[in-house]
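R.M. (postdoc): so does anyone remember the format we settled on? I'll just put the structure tokens first.
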């Protein structure tokens, strides 16, 4: 069984978590104003284009069946090993 370390609850079974996709995707600044200025291709890039990296990867996870908080994790996509987890916005909180 894969264990994932929630920054608040500690290690829990993977089945308690929900994957949230790649971390660090910034919404366009003032999107409501810029919406009419962004092209369909730019919106498409923001909404759908993600890195498909092989190796260390920053991603978002939700402890859905626990504290219901989002956090950021760094996971190696080749081995599935979580190298670190931290609250969103925290600079660093290694395992
Ligand atoms: Zn938790």
């Amino acid at each position: 069984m894969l264990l994932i370390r929630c920054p608040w609850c500690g290690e829990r079974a993977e089945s308690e978590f929900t994957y949230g996709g790649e971390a660090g995707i910034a919404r366009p600044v003032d999107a409501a104003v810029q919406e009419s200025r962004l092209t369909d291709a730019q919106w498409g890039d923001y909404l759908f284009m993600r890195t498909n990296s092989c190796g260390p990867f920053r991603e978002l996870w939700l402890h859905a069946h626990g504290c219901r908080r989002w956090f950021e994790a760094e996971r190696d996509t080749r081995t599935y090993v979580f190298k670190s987890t931290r609250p969103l916005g925290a600079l660093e909180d290694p395992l």
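R.M.: ...and that's the designed sequence above, right after the tokens. Also worth knowing: The chain has two helices and six strands. The mean pLDDT is 89.
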